[in-house]
Amino acid sequence: MKNHFIKLVLLASTIIVLTNCNKLGKDFDNYFYTDIENSAGPLTLFIDGKNKGGLPYLKTSVSPTNDTIINHALHLTLKSGKYKIEAKDNQGNLKCSFTLKFRSNLLSTSGTIGRQTTAASGKIVVTKLNY
Q: Dihedral angle at the C-alpha atoms of 122, 59, 131, 113, nearest 10 degrees?
């Protein structure tokens, strides 16, 4: 009886570990844009300190099903995890800064400068940055 119980516990533990391993590192389609028109040029997006390109100016609502966003926003594929997101102007001035953390069943943000709005559905994450 004791051996059966130990085998059952080991089997359950193995299943839990393997199930959680499958969830780690999943790819998410992230779309970034701004609704602030900057006469000095577009804001530049940085993720964990790396330049990812200019943020498109889109005057539209934040929604993971919005075709305007899907077709025109800056698209980046990111693995589930925690990222420091920043937007800077052409002079290098920080306009927006926050942390984005997501995995298959959780999305959270915490900002320090500027504002951001984030919405998600499945593996699509849409973020509007402004200041």
A: 10
